């Protein structure tokens, strides 16, 4: 049996079940020691800022009664998801940067694929829920308290996690049908389903079907909610007579639009680009953008551009 040209042939499993005792080698970014040290410090700082920023947002929202509104309810959950998704990837990558041999056991790879796909898809739907919240607030302000009730917000957030769980289970089933050589090398710094499918020595038809279905039904549907929401929001803002009214209405959307642009743009570049190859430097940095940089930037984007968050922080600091 022949393996992919990206894999060193030291013996291949003839059945997906035999793959469970194998481990994967991770290529990472570079083998140059000085560069690895610099990347370690850069990514460590990024991760620390991510932890502090997202935990800070969660604590601030819980501790500030006037932030107990639908928008901040979604934001708190977004911060939790960002914290989890970053933690799934970054600590392992930091350890690998200090090691000569970068590897991950099959069980660890399965866990990473499952959790990363759960929280990745959950973030898509949370961003879609936040877009719908802004649509109702700007286009139907009188109906906002009724439409965005606590029950509705809870259902939207719960639905987001359920969509993420559905995606995670589907991709895990997809991985369980794959078979790998004993020295399979992933041209990335963590386990992702796309490069795993390309490494499989077994029939990948089911895996491609699951991946395509998840991208089409789950990813595209959440993207359409965001797109349609802003198709309605932008004309409504432009129809406001006063310049101050337009500025206030648009300012409530800029933070969300910034987050959506970075997250959707980088992830779509990676997964929907037909010429994308995760082994290329540009594509690896696109992956870094949505796996590590976006979770770090989200709390900064929402806090630096939000007067209510800044005011809540001042009140909390004065209480102490």
From TrEMBL:
PROSITE patterns (UniProt xref): G_PROTEIN_RECEP_F1_1, G_PROTEIN_RECEP_F1_2
Pfam families per the UniProt record, alphabetical: 7tm_4
GO molecular function: G protein-coupled receptor activity; olfactory receptor activity
Membrane topology: Multi-pass membrane protein
Alphabetized UniProt keyword annotations: Cell membrane, G-protein coupled receptor, Glycoprotein, Membrane, Olfaction, Receptor, Sensory transduction, Transducer, Transmembrane, Transmembrane helix
Main location: membrane
Segments passing through the bilayer: 39-60, 72-91, 103-127, 209-238, 285-304
Cellular compartments per GO CC: plasma membrane
Compartments in which it is found: Cell membrane; Membrane
Database matches in InterPro entries: GPCR_Rhodpsn, GPCR_Rhodpsn_7TM, Olfact_rcpt
SUPFAM superfamilies in UniProt: Family A G protein-coupled receptor-like
Signal recorded as keyword: no
Family per similarity comment: Belongs to the G-protein coupled receptor 1 family.
PANTHER family: OLFACTORY RECEPTOR
Primary role: Odorant receptor.
Protein name: Olfactory receptor
Organism, scientific name: Melopsittacus undulatus (Budgerigar)
Lineage: Eukaryota, Metazoa, Chordata, Craniata, Vertebrata
């Amino acid at each position: 049996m022949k393996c992919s040209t990206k894999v060193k042939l030291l013996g291949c499993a003839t059945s997906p079940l035999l793959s469970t005792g194998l481990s994967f080698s991770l290529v990472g970014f570079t083998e140059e020691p000085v560069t690895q040290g610099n990347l370690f410090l850069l990514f460590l700082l990024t991760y620390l800022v991510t932890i502090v920023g997202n935990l800070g947002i969660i604590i601030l929202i819980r501790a500030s009664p006037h932030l107990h509104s639908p928008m901040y309810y979604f934001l708190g959950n977004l911060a939790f998801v960002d914290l989890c998704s970053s933690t799934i990837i970054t600590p392992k990558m930091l350890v690998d940067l200090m090691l000569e041999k970068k590897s991950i056991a099959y069980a660890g790879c399965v866990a990473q694929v499952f959790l990363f796909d759960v929280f990745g898809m959950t973030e898509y739907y949370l961003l879609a829920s936040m877009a719908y919240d802004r649509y109702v607030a700007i286009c139907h302000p009188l109906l906002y308290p009724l439409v965005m009730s606590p029950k509705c917000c809870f259902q939207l957030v719960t639905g987001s996690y359920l969509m993420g769980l559905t995606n995670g289970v589907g991709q895990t089933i997809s991985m369980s049908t794959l078979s790998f050589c004993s020295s399979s090398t992933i041209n990335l710094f963590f386990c992702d389903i796309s490069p795993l499918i390309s490494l499989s020595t077994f029939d990948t038809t089911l895996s491609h079907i699951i991946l395509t279905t998840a991208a089409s039904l789950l990813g595209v549907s959440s993207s359409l909610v965001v797109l349609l929401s802003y198709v309605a929001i932008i004309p409504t803002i432009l129809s406001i007579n006063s310049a101050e009214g337009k500025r206030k209405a648009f300012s409530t959307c800029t933070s969300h639009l910034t987050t959506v642009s970075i997250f959707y743009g980088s992830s779509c570049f990676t997964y929907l680009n037909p010429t994308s190859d995760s082994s290329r430097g540009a594509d690896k940095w696109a992956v870094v953008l949505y796996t590590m940089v976006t979770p770090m930037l989200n709390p900064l984007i929402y806090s630096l551009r939000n007067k209510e968050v800044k005011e809540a922080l001042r009140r909390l600091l004065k209480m102490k």
